[in-house]
Amino acid sequence: MMGPLVLVHDLKYKYEDGTVALNGVDFRLEKGETVALLGANGSGKTTFALHLNGLLSGEGTVEVCGLPVNAKNMVEVRRKIGLVFQDSESQLFMPTVLEDVAFGPLNHGLSPHQAVERAMAALEQVAMSAAAGKAPYHLSAGEKKRVAIAGILAVDPDILVLDEPTTFLDPPGQRALAQLLSTLPQAKILITHDMPFARATCCRAAFFSRGVVVEEGSVEQMARRYEWDFVAPGATWAG
Questions:
Q1: How far is 40 from 63, CA to CA, in rounded Å?
Q2: What is the pLDDT of residue 239?
Q3: Which of 161, 170, 194, 211 has the fewest CB atoms within 10 Å, measured from its CB?
Q4: Distances 66 to 1, 36, 110 between C-alpha atoms, Å
């Protein structure tokens, strides 16, 4: 496919209480990129991400892999872009890890046998195949994050969107997640306040403020320009 994987123009969204969450966002994601979305809480980052797979719908244009994000294309769009929420437990609801990861492929029409094969391959990708028979609630925070990512990988997306991926992870878990993401071929959008994590994983950053992208550049440029250098609680990064 030629052109950007994600193309957003003049995206606007207002919540029912009148709060303006997005006020004309322009954004593009190219193949192979990993882009950090930076900015204060309430600046529009998560609201923006929820538009990429149609969980919210505002004014403006949103295209994923050349497809307008609308009701007609929703099934295909959600196969192409996978969203990993901040709290992994919100995505883990089946009795076993394997059933959780196989849920997506089953929902997209694969046979039970094909879904299990796809799920096991995804668990292997994230080094969690040994946990296939475990109950998700028995896993550590880092393991839950990996399983949630496996559930997205099992539907073979082109793009991964992760919302605050280092939340609840200890420093070894943060480093392990950065290493895992570096091995995955998909383009990625990472919503994060954790600047060492962003530096370790992202090729550029977009800075959100009051519902718009005010500037884009390298993670380091955005950190210096906006004095934005948060570290996740307890983090002791060593590159």
A1: 25
A2: 43
A3: 170
A4: 8, 22, 24
pLDDT band at 230 (very low <50, low <70, confident <90, very high): low
* Amino acid identity at 152: I
The closest of 164, 167, 204, 208 to 187, measured between CA atoms, is 204
Burial class (CB in 10 A: 0-12, 13-18, 19+), 127: middle
Which residue has 């399983």 as its token pair? 147
Gap between the Cα atoms of 47 and 101, Å rounded: 25
Question: pTM of the predicted model, to two decimals?
Answer: 0.89
Q: How far is CA 46 from CA 29, 99, 162, 226, in A?
A: 16, 28, 10, 19
Query: CA angle, 236 as apex, 218 and 205 as ends, to 5°?
Result: 15
Of 133, 140, 124, nearest to 174 (Cα)? 140
Q: Taking the alpha carbons of 49, 54, 55, 59 in that order, is the dihedral positive or negative?
A: positive
